[in-house]
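Write out the 3D structure for:
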Amino acid sequence: MDTPEVISIGNMLVEVMRVDLDQPLDQPGAFVGPYPSGDTPIYIDTVARLGRRAGFIGSVGNDSFGECLMSRFEADGVDTSCVEVLADYATGVAFVAYFTGGGRKFLYHWRHAAAGQLNPVQVKPEYVGGAKWLHLTGCNLAVCESAREACYRALACFPGSGRVSFDPNIRPEVLSVEEIRAICQPVLDRADVFLPSLGEAALFTGAGSDEEGCRQLAARGKIVVLKMGARGCRIFHRDTDIHVPGFEVVEVDPTGAGDSFCAGFTVAMIEGMDIYKAGRFANAVGALAVTKKGPMEGAPWRDDVIRLLSV
């Protein structure tokens, strides 16, 4: 495989989810899975499905769950030359419960699993230095110190001519919001594209609203893409502020839709689309991602996106 254009790094997990709604994780009940998962793995797999050269840095265990993840990456064309298979650690797992009204509850096994063993030594300067785009998330900065340092090293090795995108993807189950904001600051400062969900732009800037927070960051030259689920997205860049409507689809599983959206926006920007077309392309990718059960199962292929855009 040629040098990847797009690289990401982080937690390689499988997801095991409740079959029925409103079944808490502290009681016996049925689960379904495993499904390949992890925020940056979903992102990079979607990039590959959309036709761009993609590579990943991470760790899995030498077990069936690890094979689940590696098989998906290899089938979809993600370069895994910087993924380590660790004999002494199990692959990370996320257990998920869904609730009426759209709420979710996550229970993670990753800090002491293979995902939590990600370390700076795995980040090869020649690998990261050859890419055009680097995508990082707050979730991976929060896993543990060695994973955080690996992300920082990837940022340091990445060429100044390349673009960095950052999805805060805050997980209160991992660290407090205040702690996450502090460790994310170096990445936010370098990011060319910031992709917050509702509530995150205000949180990261201390502004009174997402709109105000997005405007503050856009004034610094960043492209700020506020993800709004079914309502689409709102894009801020310098003095520009545009709303890009979403697509109407039947939602089956929302997990991973934001990660796929980020992948769609990355691909659109690499291909030179203007910000409105990039938002529309990303909205289509994110919409299709919710139509199948499993966080990575709905990640669309390029032809799927083109069909939805043509409707």
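The CA atoms of residues 218 and 237 lie 5 Å apart.
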